[in-house]
Structure formats: structure tokens, C-alpha cells
Amino acid sequence: MATNNNSYQNALQTAQFYNYNNDLKKARIWFNVAMDCEDTRSKALFRLIKLEIVAKNFVNARTILNNNSDISDFNKNYLLYRINECEYNFETSKNNLEKAMNVTCNPNLLLNMAALYKETGDYSIASIIIESLLKMNPNDFSSIMEMVHLDMMKHEFYRAFDRFKTLGNINYKFKDNEKIEYYTLEMYLKYFLGQLHTSDNIFNGNNSYRKYRLFNQSDEVLLEHIAKHFKKDDMFDSYFLKYLDIKKVLFEVKERIEAMNSITRDICCDTYNIRLDNPIGFCNNEITFDLQVSTIPGTSTIITMYPIRLSDEYDKEGLATSKTLMKKRILGGKYDK
Known about the structure:
Blueprint (H helix, E strand, L loop, with lengths): L1 H19 L3 H11 L3 H17 L3 H9 L6 H14 L3 H14 L3 H13 L3 H14 L4 H13 L3 H13 L6 H17 L16 H7 L3 H8 L11 E3 L5 H13 L4 E4 L2 E7 L5 E3 L2 E3 L1 E6 L6 E7 L14 H8 L7
Antiparallel strand pairs: 1-4, 2-3, 3-6, 4-5, 6-7
Helix pairs in contact: 1-2, 1-3, 2-3, 3-4, 3-5, 4-5, 5-6, 6-7, 7-8, 7-9, 8-9, 9-10, 10-11
């Protein structure tokens, strides 16, 4: 039996290896193998659903979650919080996260809650949560970055930049992923403050596309980047239809996002999850009508877009195009219906 259990532990580790290296197809296979053993089932199930969320396949994520009752209350509510947030069900997402926090609570979950309040335009509540975390740990990277992001959403860019610089002033020891986020955000803040100059452009569409997009916002550069999402890859399974009129889709997307609220999941981009009227590509070998679109924060300048799969629960709360939410965000939560 021990040998058998070791085999499933090895399957779980193999799945994690492929997942870490973005080989989602192989990761799915090995997570499913690991789910056949009671000792590894819970971890494999949780990580498989997280994989589907990261892959933007919310149909699969909900299906796996709904078809497996042997998942802890905490994990179930945490996963539902993430799925519902991505599908514009912000209030349901808050309820999911609150239930998870009733089981266990930590600073990361509190930051997640602050992010949800930012998305619903409740900036004062988000600020209170983040400030409470900063009182406990004034030099916490994630908390400072969340507050910088909140300042940006309120268009208080000078305050955001002053707060951002505190990380440099305290000689913060950056982890590798934090260093990338820090220097990318620095460029975006300079962009919004009008301090970014042509001479600062040492990038191109290959070595750092997101930064390069600040300097060249033409449709030609965007279409060249999107062309990468037309290729079926052995590792990734999201790609556009071969003969899709991408210029026509781009025109429609630009019109749609003007009347939509974003899902602000990334400090350096706004995200929109959109369901179109016609099929545009594949996600995990399933035809899809759905797109994820990323823009420079607070603008309609598109950074990238690619096919995703939204579930039947998409936008049940009607917040994707809610004018009330749009005005509330613009006015910092001071909008009255």
C-alpha cells in the first residue's frame, strides 16, 4: 500500500512540475491520476481547479467543483470567490471569501477582500482594510502595492508614486517576482505622470511587450502580438480560429469595453471578460465565444486579448455593464443611485 501511495504522491509532484512550467495539458493528466488516491485527492482536486481558473476555463473549474463534494468548506469557498470575481459576480465573491475567512483568516485573504471592495467602488472600505494590515507590517510589499493600486484607481497618481517610493526608501529586499512587478509599476506610474520619455524605451515587442506597449500603442503592434494566439500549442490550449477576422473582432471589442467595467486583477492592467455573439476560438479544445481583454489601466488601450471559457454563471449580478458601478468607481464610492 505504501508503494501505491508513493506512486500517487509522485503523480501529484509530476502534476505540480508541469503546472509550474505551464504545460497545462500534462498537468491536467497527472492531477487526475493523483485524484484516484484518497491521500492525494484533496490536494490534486484543489490544484486542478486552480489550474482551470488560471487557464481562464471557468466552465471546467465550476464543473469539477460541482461534481466533487469531498472538498473542504474553506477550499470550496476560496475557489468560488476566485471564479465569481472573474465572472463579474463581485457580491457573491465577497460572500464566498467571507465564508472562507470564517474558517481561517490571514493577511492575504484580507488583501483579497480589499481588492473586491476596490472592484465594487467601495474605496474607503478597501483603504481601511489595507491600512490595518500596514499597521501590523508597515513594510509589507503586497499591502503597499495594493494601496498604490487604490491610489491609481482614484487617479491620485502623485500620492501613488510617493507611496510607491517608500519601498525603495526602506531598502526593501525584493524577491524576483516582486522586482519585476516593482519596476513595471514604476514605468506605468511615470507614464500616468507624464514623466515617461521616448529615450526611456529600451524595449521591444519580444523582450518586454507590456512595457513596450506604453511607447507604441498602435493597432499594428497589438495585432502582431495577438498573432501569437492564433497558433495551437502543445502546452497551451487557448487559440483563435484560423480564419477569424481579428480586425473586425478588435473593432467590436473596443466598442464593448467602452461600456464595460473592468475586473482590476492586475496592478498594471485592467481586465475585461467578454462574451461575444459569434465563436472566436478554442479553449481546452472547446469552441468558445469568450475573450479576456487587458488594457493599460484606466484607458481603452488594449495590451492583449485571447480566448477563454466563461460559465453559465457569468455576470449573474449584471455588474459587467452596470452604469451605477461605473459611476461609483469614477466618483470613489460617493455615487448615490
